Amino acid sequence: QVQLVESGGGLVQAGDSLTLSCTASGRTSFSDYVVGWFRQAPGKEREYVAIISWSGAGTNEAESVKGRFTIDRDNTKKTVTLQMNSLRPEDSAVYYCAAGNRFSTQLTDFTSWGQGTQVTVSS
Q1: pLDDT at residue 116 above 90?
Q2: What is the pLDDT averaged over residues 110-115?
Q3: Torsions phi, psi for 37 (to 5 deg)
Q4: pLDDT tens, residue by residue, 26-61
Q5: Which of 13, 58, 104, 117 sits at a 20 to 30 Å CA gap from 35?
Q6: In DSSP terms, which residues pair with 79 in a beta bridge?
């Protein structure tokens, strides 16, 4: 099992950038896991944002963030980052990172979750 902690959230204005980090701990090798970012806005279901493969060679982003958000990882530091540019008010949500064993956009394929970090984008 791997434990995950997100950081880097905050209050920004539309058009600004923000970088979220997800740091892992635990006995298992971090490179054994696919890592994804998800978000949940008030009153809405949790939705997929981006995913990165075990080595970092493969990535995928949701259409709503493609071209604005970039996911990356450093397995030696056990971290995954989400660089968010050109932020919009509709990007406001609690952002969660999650680890799993399948390169999948489905929430149910992820077995370990962080507590989340709040991102608020003002107009």
Answers
A1: yes
A2: 97
A3: -110, 135
A4: 988 999 999 999 999 999 999 999 999 999 999 999
A5: 13
A6: 23, 74
Report d(CA 77, CA 32) in Å as an integer: 14
| Residue in this structure with the two tokens 């701990």, named with its chain if needed | 25
Q: What is the pLDDT of residues 82-109, one digit of tens each?
A: 999 999 999 999 999 999 999 999 999 9
How far is the C-alpha of 42 from the C-alpha of 73, rounded, in Å? 28
Q: What pLDDT, on a 0 to 100 scale, did the predictor assign at position 28?
A: 83
Name the token pair of 31: 């490179």
Closest CA to 19 of 59, 105, 77, 79: 79
Cα–Cα dist 13/116, whole Å: 20
CA distance 116 to 123: 23
Using CA atoms, how far residue 101 sits from 28, 33, 39, 50, 70, in Å, is 12, 5, 20, 15, 21
Write the DSSP symbol of residue 17: -
- Point out which residues pair with 120 in neighbouring strands: 11
Decide if 102 contacts 108 (C-beta within 8 A): no
Which pLDDT score, from 0 to 100, does residue 38 have? 98
